Predict the structure.
Amino acid sequence: MIKTLKLPILFAVLFAAVLIFIIGHYYFFSSSSDAEWYIKIAKGDIKDAVQPFASRVLHPMIVRVVSFFSGLDISLSFYVVNVFLLLSFVFILSLFFSEISFMNPPLVFVVLFTPFLLDFHRNFYMSDVLFGFLAALFFFSLKRKNIILSLSLLFILFFSRPADAMVLGVILLVVSFYKKEMKLAKASLVVILFAYLLISLVITPLGAPNIHNISNLTYRSLQPIYYFVRSVLGIDWMMSTQVQYCQPKFLIYPPSWIHLGGIKWIGVCGFNIVNPLSVIFYSLITFGLIPGMLFSTLRKNWRQFFTKNEVWLLVAMGYGILVFFLGILVPNLRTVSYGWPAFWLAGFYILDRQIRQWPVEAKKSLIKLFTIVQAVLLWVPYLIVKNLPNTPETLKYFLALFVVAFLYLIFIRRYSITAKKYNIVL
C-alpha cells in the first residue's frame, strides 16, 4: 500500500496540516476546561484526575516522557506532540487517499482542511489526534491483513480513549464473526477482555471517581440519555454535581432508594431551541456532502455492502457511523468528527467503486462541483456560527442552516443535470 502513495496527494495533506498549524497558532492555549485533567496526569498527579479522563493515560504519559527528555514545559510538550501526531495522522490518510481514483490534490486539501481538524489541533491537550493516528494505523494494518499489528494497536487504543476503543473492538468482533473470520474474532475477544480488565482493575483506581461519584458503568449508561434529552429534545437540565450552566426552574429530588452517588437533585431549566439546531447543524457541516452521498449509495446497495466488502471496511463503516450519531447527541465539532473512519476511509472507497464506472467528462465535472461546494459548506456556515458578532445565537444557527440548505440544493440540482446528461447513478 505504501508503494501506491502519490506524492501530489501527500503534498496536499501536508499543506492542509501546515495551514492548520499556522491558523492554530492564534489559539495556542487550549480553551477546553477538560484540559486540566490531562495536565494533572502529565505532571504525575493522576490521583487528582477524575473519570473518565483519568483512564486516558497514554497521551499525557507520552507528553510527560517528551517533557522529561527535552526539557520543555508540559504545555509546550503537549503542543509539540500534537503537531507530530497530526502530521502522522494525515500521512496515514494519504496512503488511503492515494488508492482512490477520483482523488486529486485540490479535493484532498478541501477534505482535510476542515474546522474540526483545526479544532483537534487547537485542543492539543486532548487525546483526539493520538486516537485518530492510532485508529488510522489500525485500519491500515487491518486492510493489509496484519492481524498482530492490528490487535496490538487496538490494545494500545484502550489507553487513549477506553470507551471509544471498546466500541471499535466490539464492532471488530461482530464483523469478524459475521465474515466467519474466527481466528480474528477469538483473538479480538481476548484483546478486548484483557485490555478492559487492565483498565478497570489497574488504571481506573489510580484516579478519582467521576464528578457524580457513581460507577463508571452507570455513568456511561446514563450519558446518552442525558444528551438525548438535552440536545435532541432541546430541554436544558442539569445535576447538582455539575457546573451550573443554566438556571433551573424546578428541581427533582430522586428517592433515597435510587443510589446516584453525589447527585442530590436534578434541575430542569426549560426548552432551548439552540440545542436541536446545533444537532442539525453539526450533522450537516462536519463532513459536508460526504455523509449524504454515502447514505444515498448504501440505501440502494446495502445488502451487497455487507456481503462483498472486507473486514476493515465494514469495521470502519460501522464504527464511524455509530460514533457519528453518538457524537451528534453532545453535540460539538469534536464529538461528531469521531465518525471520520466512515466517511474519509470506508465512504470514499465505496463511492470510488461507483465513480469508476462514470464517463470521464461526467467524473471531472462532478468532482469539480463537489470540491467547490464542499469547501464552502465546511467553512462558511461554521464561520457564521462562531464569528458573526452582535448576533443572537438562534439567528446565527438559522442563517447558517439556510446557507447549508442552499449549498445542498445547488449540488443536488447540478448533480441531477449531469447525471441525466450522462445517464449515471450514484
